[in-house]
Amino acid sequence: MKEIKLFGLRLKELRTVKKLSQEKLAQKAGISAKYMSRIEMGQHFPSFDILIKVAKALNVEIKDFFEYAHESENPKVLKKIISELLKDMDVYKLRQSVKLLKALSR
User: Fold this and answer.
1) In Å, what is the CA distance from 19 to each residue of 34, 78, 86?
2) Which CATH architecture has domain 3-104?
3) N or C: where does the chain have the smaller number of CB atoms within 10 Å of the terminal CB?
4) At what angle do helices 22-29 and 33-40 cross, to 10 degrees?
5) For residues 67 and 86, what is the distance between their CA atoms, to the nearest angstrom?
6) CA–CA dist 42, 59 (Å, integer)
7) 58 with 39: CB under 8 angstroms?
8) How far does Cα 76 stand from its chain's mean position?
9) How many CB atoms lie within 10 A of CB 85?
10) pLDDT values of the chain reduced to their tens digit, one per residue, 106 residues
11) Residue ranges per domain, the chain?
């Protein structure tokens, strides 16, 4: 998965933990809700200035945006990441992934 998508998923995770809608977070950060949506969907990566504003609006440190969901305990987030990773794999990598998942599930 591209890092920009991971960033978007992480932002969404932080926002939902704080129980904020995209609109409310965008308002607090001084950006449009449409732009916030694009960031969360992994279509845009914010400038450093916007990153600072969003971090302040969420009351988190900038480094928190880069602690990606593989460290999450939210099963939905983890499954979405796995799904996104599988989308871009060729047949060889898919076979390897199946072997690895089988080994882990034992």
Assistant:
1) 18, 19, 29
2) Orthogonal Bundle (1.10)
3) C
4) 110
5) 21
6) 22
7) no
8) 12
9) 14
10) 577 888 898 899 899 888 999 999 999 999 999 999 999 999 999 999 999 999 999 999 999 888 875 566 778 877 877 887 787 789 998 999 899 888 888 8
11) 3-104
